[in-house]
Design goal:
It contains 20 helices and 16 strands. By secondary structure, the protein is α/β, with parallel strands linked by helices. It folds into four domains: about 10-135, Response regulator (Rossmann fold); about 150-315, Rossmann fold (3-Layer(aba) Sandwich); about 320-400, Helicase, Ruva Protein, domain 3 (Orthogonal Bundle); about 400-470, Arc Repressor Mutant, subunit A, CATH 1.10.10. A five-stranded parallel β-sheet has the order 2-1-3-4-5, with helices on both faces.
Length: about 475
């Protein structure tokens, strides 16, 4: 890494010994370091040249750290601030987190402690650079609609490229909402069959009789309602690709017929006597553990081994959190084409909450969350109060340090209680509006609140209905 590539750090403290110690530590780690002895001097330096990371004391004679943090947030939002202080009380912790402090470095600190915090801050700064670029449409790390930059998702891209040119059976394993169909479509797109048809079948939504008829087709009179011959998906997809999603939901009888088809690429239409042969690529997906189902006797062992040729395990969103900002902006951009609103950014505080949440519904849940935030947002930026309570509450343990005495405990308990009530209140109003098609009058009547009081709560939480109540 050249000197121009190395991160730039600014240390702000009115104690020269602290500044010199920090400069020595960071310089040894490869940072370009400068020193300021007050908040006012630091701001003057920030006006002249860009910095990536800023370490600041809280207690300084001329413009303290609190005031400096507030100014950074409004004038230099891309700088990642770290507080170094010997006064790390719960009150100052909460206040500085609200003002945008990224982390703490309590005095006295060791070289290893400072280096570790600086590394985390630099990682955050790089993430901000990428996120800003994505927000401005400059870059979007994606692959056939699958968005992500994490090592785990890049490995998925590599596996797709490797298996796509072959005709091998692929089994995609992943939780609901992880993008299994997108992976199947990518395999088809990069295969020699891409000029032929791609069929996606959700095996969990069809009855046994209907699934068999859909896959294999049927002849006239095969069952009640079969008034004519019907070509099945396997026959229609000849030379193409068929994606069977949630294969774990088919019964043992269909499993047996599917096994024979995988082995021979031959099948009998329902009620038919003439065998048909096709050449298709099969891709399967499951959100359940097939090996466990084999042990339980609900999935055929011979079919399991036929499917388990080239497994692709999709990581849940919680295991690739670095992709969340990229995905959030991708989904936001997608919604701009569907909505007249022009919401172009997601605040750093909101992004942090999105990154901290575990996303049990994965990308699908993130998409619905961004859509809801767009509905709630009346400006150009999505803020934390536009996010659902489940997401905002997920950030509480990391946002508030553990109290060190009873006074701090009581103060934090009061703050958390007020915040929880405010979040519940906002969710209550949003839910009432959504149930009533965003009609304020009907929503107020539904929850038995007078309309003026309901509107007051909407104003309190910056919620706009975005429509008239004339209907």
């Amino acid at each position: 890494m050249t000197d121009m590539d190395s991160p730039k750090a600014l240390i702000v403290d009115d104690e020269p010994t602290i500044c010199r110690a920090g400069e020595k530590i960071l310089a040894r780690e490869g940072y370009r370091v400068k020193i300021a002895y007050s908040g006012k001097q630091a701001l003057a330096m920030l006006e002249q040249e860009p910095f990536d990371i800023l370490f600041t004391d809280l207690k300084m004679a001329e413009m303290g750290g609190m005031e400096l943090l507030g100014t950074l947030r409004s004038r230099f939002p891309d700088v990642v601030p770290v507080v170094i202080t010997g006064y790390a009380t719960i009150a100052s912790a909460v206040e500085t987190m609200k003002l945008g402090a990224f982390d703490y470095l309590p005095k006295p600190f060791t070289p290893d402690e400072m280096a570790a915090v600086a590394k985390k801050a630099w990682d955050k700064r790089q993430s901000l650079i990428e996120t800003r670029a994505i927000a401005q449409g400059e870059m979007l790390p994606s692959f056939c609609g699958i968005v992500g930059k994490s090592p785990k998702i890049q490995e998925i891209f590599r596996m797709i490229r490797k298996v796509a040119p072959t005709s091998s059976t692929v089994l995609i394993i992943g939780e609901t909402g992880t993008g299994k169909e997108l992976v199947a479509r990518a395999i088809h797109t990069f295969s020699p069959r891409n000029e032929h048809r791609f069929f996606a079948v959700d095996c969990g939504t069809l009855s046994v009789e209907l699934l068999e008829s859909e896959l294999f087709g049927h002849i006239r009179g095969a069952f009640t309602g079969a008034v004519s011959n019907k070509q099945g998906i396997f026959e229609s997809a000849d030379q193409g690709t068929v994606f069977l999603d949630e294969i774990c939901n088919i019964n043992l009888e269909i499993q047996g017929k599917l096994l024979r088809f995988i082995q021979e690429r031959e099948f009998l239409p329902v009620g038919g006597t003439e065998t048909k042969h096709v050449d298709i690529r099969l891709v399967f997906a499951t959100n359940r553990d097939l090996e466990k189902m084999v042990a339980e006797g609900t999935f055929r062992e011979d079919l399991y081994y036929r499917l388990y040729v080239y497994p692709i395990q999709l990581p849940p969103l919680r295991e690739r959190r670095e992709d969340i900002p990229v995905l959030a902006y991708h989904l936001l951009a997608k919604m701009q084409t569907q909505d007249s609103k022009k919401i172009t950014t997601i605040s750093d505080a909101a992004l942090k909450l999105l990154e901290q949440y575990d996303w049990p519904g994965n990308v699908r849940q993130l998409e619905s969350t961004i859509e809801r935030a767009v509905i709630s947002c009346d400006g150009g930026t999505i803020e934390p109060h536009h996010l659902p309570m489940a997401v905002t509450r997920a950030g509480l343990p990391e946002s508030y340090p553990v109290p060190q005495n009873n006074q701090e405990f009581l103060a934090l308990k009061k703050k958390l209680r007020e915040q929880a009530i405010a979040e519940l209140e906002r969710e209550f109003i949003l839910d009432a509006l959504q149930r009533n098609d965003w009609n304020v009058t009907r929503a107020a009547q539904d929850v038995n609140i007078q309309r003026p009081n309901f509107q007051a709560l909407m104003r309190k939480h910056a919620i706009r209905s975005g429509r008239s109540d004339a209907d």
